């Protein structure tokens, strides 16, 4: 029994010690947790501050990016704002000469084709047409001829303006407004032509003189055509009809060869004195040499000519044939009148 009692006491003592130890650990555990909490809070604070610092830096970064974008925009805008038209170089000016040549070819095509055709038609209408209908056709052809002359004047202006710009570039003049200058010069020339009177536009125009002559010589054979100023009414801006320099008398076109005194056959015209001859007659007169000169056989001419000075004149050849036909018709009419009488 005594032994059992001591063992119980021993066990009880162990239990108390164990429970006391547990209570001590429980009492100490909050202190460690407090310490841990303190350490955790200390660790968290730097992290939160670091995050706060980063948030404060972000606006600065965006501002710098915006500035860089603004700087980039300014770099692209400045060259455009300061950019200006460069002077026209000689290489580009040469192209203007090509354009002027194109206008010249167009003008020559109009003159050589359409204008000559209308002149021939007018001559035929004047010869074979009758009455008011014929006069109406001739009036319409006259209007068309004037319109073609107006178009020819505009084409000539195009050619002149382009060549003038090219010449100024060759003289080292800086031309930075080539389009504006071209349009301005064209406008000035067109307005100047538009402000001319009818006489000023057509009375001294070679194409119009030929057109009117082709009609007049059919209607009035062997009669010199009066100056066109007599056919075109005077307008404000025209010189007085009494001025000597305006009253230039007309001439009678002679289709007879000065050597044969007959109607021209295959006519050759001298580039020196502009007299025309039948080909066979003038070649026999000058001889076989193409360079030997002789005095022109036309009455009153003191020029010396050679075969090399002569050229074919197809236009005159056609007119000579028409003149020969009209002469035969007049002779036939005269013979019929003689028979009737």
Automatic annotation (TrEMBL):
One of its GO terms (molecular function) is zinc ion binding. It comes from the Eukaryota. GO terms for biological process: double-strand break repair via homologous recombination; protein sumoylation. Keywords: Coiled coil, Metal-binding, Nucleus, Transferase, Ubl conjugation pathway, Zinc, Zinc-finger. It is found in: Nucleus. Residues 33-43, 66-77, 332-341 have a biased composition (Acidic residues). Residues 48-57 have a biased composition (Basic residues). Its main location: nucleus. One of its GO terms (cellular component) is Smc5-Smc6 complex. Gene3D superfamilies: Zinc/RING finger domain, C3HC4 (zinc finger) (3.30.40.10). InterPro entries: Nse2(Mms21), Znf_MIZ, Znf_RING/FYVE/PHD. PROSITE patterns: ZF_SP_RING. Residues 1-86, 317-341 are annotated as: Disordered. It holds the Pfam family zf-Nse. Belongs to the NSE2 family. This is SP-RING-type domain-containing protein.
């Amino acid at each position: 029994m005594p032994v059992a009692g001591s063992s119980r006491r021993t066990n009880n003592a162990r239990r108390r010690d164990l429970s006391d130890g547990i209570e001590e650990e429980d009492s100490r555990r909050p202190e460690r947790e407090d310490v841990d909490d303190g350490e955790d809070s200390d660790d968290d604070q730097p992290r939160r501050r670091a995050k706060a610092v980063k948030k404060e830096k972000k606006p600065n970064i965006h501002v710098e990016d915006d500035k860089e974008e603004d700087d980039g925009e300014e770099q692209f805008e400045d060259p455009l704002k300061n950019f200006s038209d460069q002077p026209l170089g000689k290489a580009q000016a040469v192209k203007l000469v090509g354009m002027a040549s194109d206008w010249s070819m167009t003008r020559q095509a109009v003159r050589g084709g359409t204008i000559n055709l209308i002149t021939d038609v007018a001559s035929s209408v004047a010869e074979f047409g009758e009455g008011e209908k014929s006069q109406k056709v001739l009036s319409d052809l006259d209007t068309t001829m004037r319109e073609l002359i107006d178009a020819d004047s505009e084409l000539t202006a195009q050619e002149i303006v382009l060549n003038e710009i090219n010449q100024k570039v060759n003289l080292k003049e800086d031309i930075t407004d080539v389009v504006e200058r071209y349009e301005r010069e064209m406008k000035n020339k067109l307005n100047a032509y538009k402000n001319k009177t009818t006489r000023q536009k057509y009375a001294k125009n070679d194409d119009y003189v030929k057109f009117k002559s082709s009609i007049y010589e059919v209607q009035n054979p062997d009669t010199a055509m009066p100056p066109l100023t007599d056919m075109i009414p005077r307008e404000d801006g025209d010189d007085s009809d009494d001025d000597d320099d305006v009253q230039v008398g007309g001439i009678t076109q002679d289709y007879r060869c000065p050597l044969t005194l007959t109607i021209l056959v295959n006519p050759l015209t001298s580039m020196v004195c502009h007299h025309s001859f039948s080909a066979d007659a003038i070649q026999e007169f000058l001889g076989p040499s193409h360079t030997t000169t002789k005095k022109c056989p036309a009455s009153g001419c003191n020029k010396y000519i050679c075969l090399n000075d002569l050229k074919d004149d197809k236009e005159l050849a056609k007119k000579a044939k028409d003149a020969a036909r009209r002469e035969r018709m007049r002779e036939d009419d005269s013979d019929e009148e003689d028979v009737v009488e």
